[in-house]
């Protein structure tokens, strides 16, 4: 049989075309295209298959399919400061002219003076004071309007993008996959419940009633015949650490089958998830990519931080408990939706 150069060229073209079609089909079939192939990606795919395939011994009834996600550092960038903290600082600056006494009193005077070194050392008490004056003294609807205006205009300095642009594409894909397989997705955050509810549906596809977060006391008042919920400068529920397990039980009433976090504040949520029967998925995002995002720990020999601390103790606990640590650097092909 005689084979000409023209035959070889035709055959090469045909093979290339088949290869291209196969590549496109493979990409389309991949539910997690922003993940590099590896143990973390495979664990997610295997978990979903095992818990949604009726022939699997690990099958979970649709009514029980619950997955919980922390927000800061798990679903969007939390450095150099939590998004809600940036909102509070911005609002404090706007309120400062009405409060000249703040120039003489910490923590307010440090914020007004732009003393970043002092602000880095703020304690939880300092932040509670700032939140008290910036998040209260108004009706809930007024507060939501303030957040909506800020979140649709404020930008993160390093990236010059809206804070809501800095969501993690790989985690959006995980949420989408779980949702398509009948899982109900909840955001369980140490951040403010009302704050996150403003944008949760638009950004994550999570409805406001499926956001569990920290909250402050609200009081029902009737002003000129109109009922209003007034936000008071006192904490009501802190959804962090053990509070996450308590909040899940209080507001969901079911133990999650999958839980995702990134700090010691998520540890009890993962422990609570793992304590259930059957297949469970517990994952922690490790920020180890200072080029594309930020690198901090101090777990794994990374720089220490007061924002989103991932300690060596947490890393040891994850290894001991069999939780999967997601390396942002190694496991994520793409971090943000706007990347190409």
What does this structure look like?
The structure is a single chain. By secondary structure, this protein is an alpha/beta fold. 41% of the residues lie in helices and 16% in strands. Helix 13 (312-321) links the parallel strand 8 and strand 9 (324-327). Helix 3 (83-95) crosses helix 6 and helix 11 crosses helix 12. 35% of the residues are buried. The model is unreliable at 1-26 (pLDDT under 50).
Question: What topology does this entry show?
Answer:
Elements (H helix, E strand, L loop, with lengths): L4 H25 L9 H14 L13 E4 L13 H13 L12 H6 L2 H4 L4 H12 L4 H12 L3 E2 L4 E2 L6 H12 L3 E9 H5 L2 H5 L6 E13 L2 E12 L4 H10 L6 E4 L5 H8 L6 E6 L25 H10 L2 E4 H4 L9
Parallel strand pairs: 1-4, 1-7, 4-5, 7-8, 8-9
Antiparallel strand pairs: 2-3, 5-6
Helix pairs in contact: 3-6, 11-12
| Assembly annotation | single chain
Terminal CA distance reads 47 Å
Low-confidence stretches: 1-26
Instruction: Give the helix proportion (percent range).
Output: 40-55%
Strand adjacency order, main sheet: 6-5-4-1-7-8-9
Percentage of residues in strands: 15-25%
Report the structural category. alpha/beta
Kindly provide the radius of gyration, computed on alpha-carbon positions and rounded to a whole number of angstroms.
Answer: 23 Å
Overall body shape? globular
Mind describing the biggest β-sheet? 7 strands, mixed
Specify the number of helices: 14
Overall pLDDT score:
91
Number of strands: 9
Order of helices and strands: HHEHHHHHEEHEHHEEHEHEHEH
């Amino acid at each position: 049989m005689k084979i000409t150069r023209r035959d070889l060229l035709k055959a090469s073209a045909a093979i290339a075309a088949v290869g291209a079609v196969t590549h496109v089909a493979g990409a389309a079939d991949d539910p997690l295209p922003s993940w590099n192939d590896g143990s973390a990606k495979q664990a997610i795919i295997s978990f979903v298959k095992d818990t949604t395939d009726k022939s699997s011994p690990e099958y979970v009834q649709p009514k029980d399919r619950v997955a919980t996600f922390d927000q800061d550092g798990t679903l969007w960038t939390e450095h150099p400061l939590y998004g809600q903290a940036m909102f509070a600082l911005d609002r404090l600056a706007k309120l400062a002219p009405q409060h000249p006494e703040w120039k003489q009193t910490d923590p307010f005077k440090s914020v007004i003076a732009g003393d970043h070194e002092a602000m880095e050392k703020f304690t939880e008490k300092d932040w509670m004071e700032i939140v008290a004056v910036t998040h209260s003294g108004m009706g809930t609807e007024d507060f939501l309007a303030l957040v909506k205006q800020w979140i649709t205009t404020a930008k993160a300095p390093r990236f010059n993008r809206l804070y809501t642009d800095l969501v993690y594409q790989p985690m959006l894909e995980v949420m989408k996959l779980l949702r398509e397989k009948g899982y109900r997705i909840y955001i369980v955050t140490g951040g403010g419940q009302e704050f996150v509810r403003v944008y949760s549906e638009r950004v994550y596809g999570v409805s406001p009633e499926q956001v569990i977060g920290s909250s402050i006391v609200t009081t029902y008042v009737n002003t000129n015949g109109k009922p209003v919920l007034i936000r008071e400068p006192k904490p009501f529920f802190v959804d962090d650490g053990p509070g996450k397990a308590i909040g899940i039980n209080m507001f969901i009433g079911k133990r999650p089958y999958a839980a995702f976090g990134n700090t010691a504040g998520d540890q009890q949520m993962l422990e609570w998830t793992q304590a259930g029967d059957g297949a469970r998925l517990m994952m922690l995002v490790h920020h180890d990519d200072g080029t594309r995002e930020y690198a901090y720990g101090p777990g794994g020999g990374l720089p220490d931080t007061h924002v989103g601390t991932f300690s060596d103790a947490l890393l040891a606990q994850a290894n001991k408990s069999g939780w999967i640590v997601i390396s942002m650097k190694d496991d994520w092909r793409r971090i943000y939706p706007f990347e190409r």
